Amino acid sequence: MKKAYKLKCFLCEKEHDEQESATTCTSCHGPLETYYNYDLIAQKLNTYALKTAPISALKYMALYPIDDFKNIVSLEEGGTPLIHAKNLGKKLGLNNLYIKNEGMNPTGCFKDRGTMVEITKAKEMGAKAICVASTGNMAASVSAYSAAAGIPCYVLVPEGTPLGKLSQTLTFGARLIQVRASYSTCAELAEQMAQRFGYYLAGDYTFRTEGQKSEGYEIIEQLFWRCPDYVVCPIGCGTNLHAIFKGIQELEKLGFIRRLPKLIGVQTEGCNPVVKAFEAGRLDFDSIKNPRTVASAIAAGTPLDGAKILKDVYDSEGTVVEVDDEYLLECQQEQTRAEGVFSEPSGALAYAAVKKLSGEGFFNEDDVVVCMATGNGLKDPKSPLKILPEPASVEPDFKEIERFIEQKLYAVRESGRIEKTKVLFTKSPKDSKAISKVLADEFDISVNGGISEAIYRSVTGFLEKGKEITKADLQYILEEILDEFSLKNRVLAISDFKVQTTMHDQAEAEVWAEAFGKEVHAYGKGVGPVDAAIQALKDALKVKVWLIDYEVAIDASGVDAAVEVKMTLKNEKGHRVVARSTSPDIIVASLKAFEKGVNILYSKLEGI
Ligand SMILES: *Cc1c(COP(=O)(O)O)cnc(C)c1O
Ligand SMILES: [Zn+2]
Predict the structure, then answer these.
(1) 19, 127, 184, 549: which has the fewest C-beta neighbours closer than 10 Å?
(2) What distance in Å separates the CA atoms of residue 345 and residue 268, rounded to the nearest whole number?
(3) Helix (H, G, I), strand (E, B), or coil: what is residue 536?
């Protein structure tokens, strides 16, 4: 049977036999590309079946470089939703904004479409093992398909790859190596690994492109065989956007549509080689040595398909834009909250670019704009938490739930995350009414007179010590005071302490407090000042309290941005409580957390 495709170098056009190389050119090391005889394909293609069969990547089999369907390694990739993003569209004045949710693929990323073709080819060629370099998603995808094909898989990723991706890769049974370098170095090492051991090299090469074309097919199909005006997609190696464009170009060649979309590629400021090349009007690019971005999936300093994607963007009369990490994380929140599509940071880059360009009047309101949400948010659960508040913890008492809702504690936390460093007071406000006004403006909450008085006193106290009050400071003070006011009774109030450290980290502490209605003055010894002070306090109490966990975090966003202590306490009845406190001084933070914990234990949980 005559093959409908051949492999040629994208740069020097040298033809390659796929057994010889299906990755890079053996003469110039340029990327290979698969070229088809579309007349031959048109003869084989059953247009009616294609238009009526349910959406899936596999139904486009005639357009993949696979000879024998019995070798297919598939997890039923593709067929992902194209969501009409009406809420975001309304915000930006776009009537036809769409999100293609590629996070719905088997391993949570579009890579599965390419991996289907790649691993099928590996099986066809009788690969004894597979090796791949990845920023994480390709690792998860290739290891999943290798597992399904029963072929061992070696994976190289940069150290610090997001948790979800590592966990997937290890669980699929890949032989995973973390390299203390960026992705592009991993890619070079994987290539050497393939040569030295004769493994099948997976990665951003031409067979992957062939599988990922199905994103392009599906976009057209889901828009009822119409072409969008713009396709917006993050660029790492550029393989994916190139594949999408190739898929759409093929449907145009085969007569399904009559025009092509403009491409909008997106990168971040921390890894922008394609943006720089585009702005200089070049077809080649300079590598970025140490990419640094929260969008780890696009952190490819030397994009393997950089030359291809630059040509595509120019050919389509599109553009390439960059955003910064902070803007991206906010856009990730916005996309998720408005449309319910939770993407990892790279997956929200397309929306971020559309938002940025909309602000510059780039689009017409009726333009059909498709954003590629490339990866699932669960892949990288930590990144959004960088800008989200910690969730509230409450005692198991319905009053606490009421308090959360009635005092609008959710709103305090939510608004506290925006403009944290904004300075609210540089000199003492006139009275507590001034405090109430600021609380209403900044946090959308109203508090009673007693609470605003207490906040006023605290704010004034800090200002007298020469400290300005930022929004994060006020949020911290507000939460502390709301907490205190929610106690029926305070069983412990520390009034003063002294600590002294001797040689060998031995420490002694002296503490003055009121405990269960009595003045106490206690001494303690410990391995450090915090330990000694807590020992003294424990002795001063007439009840037994155990400290069962103690965590210290530096650089919390509370007052003076200093030390945050999180303490878990347990009492004789088995009640547990987690108490937090922040202070520039670790001993003060620890004592306050202990004091708070004891008060919660006895006032809230035992009703004293
Ligand atoms: C791989 C990946 C990208 C980048 O795709 P390229 O083909 O490298 O341009 C973008 N987003 C996610 C989630 C990815 O996994
Ligand atoms: Zn070449």
Answers:
(1) 19
(2) 11
(3) helix
Residue 73 parent element (H or E): none
What pTM value is reported for the model? Answer: 0.85
Domains of the chain in start order, with CATH, are 74-382 (3.40.50.1100), 389-485 (no CATH), 492-605 (3.30.160.270)
Answer yes or no: are the C-beta atoms of 473 and 589 closer than 8 Å.
Answer: no
Q: Which residue spans within 326-445 are E strands per DSSP?
A: 368-373, 423-425
For residues 210 and 119, what is the distance between their CA atoms, to the nearest angstrom? 12
The rounded distance, in Å, linking the Cα atoms of 596 and 589 is 10
Nearest by Cα to 73 from 113, 110, 111: 113
Q: Which of 283, 275, 454 is nearest to 353 (CA)?
A: 275
3-state secondary structure of 397: coil
Backbone angles phi, psi at 549, to 5 degrees: -155, 145
Q: Decide whether any atom of ligand 1 lies within 6 Å of the 237 Cβ.
A: yes
The response to whether residue 238 sits with its C-beta less than 6 Å from ligand 1 reads yes
Please report how many Cα atoms fall inside a 13 Å half-sphere around the Cα of residue 180, on the Cβ side: 0
> What is the amino acid identity at position 320?
V
- Cβ of 115 below 6 Å from ligand 1: no
Alpha carbon distance 52, 74 (integer Å): 21
CB 183 within 8 A of CB 134: yes
Identify the residue whose tokens are 């602000």.
359
Q: Are 369 and 82 in contact (CB under 8 A)?
A: no
Ligand 1: which residue has its CA nearest to atom 14? Answer: 297
Those residues whose C-beta lies under 8 Å from the C-beta of residue 267, and which sit 6 or more positions away, are 234, 235, 273, 274, 275, 298, 320, 321, 322, 349
Question: How many residues does the structure list for the chain?
Answer: 608
Query: Which amino acid, 76?
Result: E
- 451 is written with which tokens? 């609470």
Instruction: Please tell me the distance from the alpha carbon of residue 83 to that of residue 247, in angstroms, as a whole number.
Output: 20
Q: How far is CA 3 from the centre of its chain?
A: 42
Q: Is 236 in the pocket of ligand 1 (CB under 6 A)?
A: yes
Q: What is the pLDDT of residue 559?
A: 47
Task: Say how many Å lie between the CA of residue 33 and the centre of ligand 2.
Answer: 10
- Give me the average pLDDT of each 10-residue run along the chain (608 residues): 86 95 96 95 90 95 91 97 98 98 98 98 96 97 98 96 96 97 95 97 98 98 98 98 98 97 98 98 94 96 96 98 97 98 98 98 98 98 87 81 86 79 91 93 88 91 82 86 83 90 84 91 90 90 89 64 83 88 83 92 79
The tokens describing 53, both together, are 């069969």
Tokens of 494: 């520390």
Q: Among the residues of 374-418, which ranges form H helices?
A: 382-385, 398-406, 409-416
- Residue 408: exposure state from Cβ atoms within 10 A (0-12, 13-18, ≥19): middle
Contact criterion met (CB below 8 Å) for 166 and 176: yes
Task: Measure 208 CA to ligand 1 centroid, in angstroms.
Answer: 12
Half-sphere exposure of 561 (CA within 13 A, CB side): 10
Which of these, 551, 553, 588, lies nearest to 568 by C-alpha position? 551
The per-residue b/e assignment along 164-184, b for 16 or more CB within 10 angstroms, e otherwise, is bbbebbeebebebbebeebbb
Reference 278, options 306, 237, 304; nearest CA is 306
With a 6 A CB cut-off, is 141 part of the ligand 1 pocket?
A: no
Nearest-CA neighbor of 298 among 315, 317, 275, 282? 275
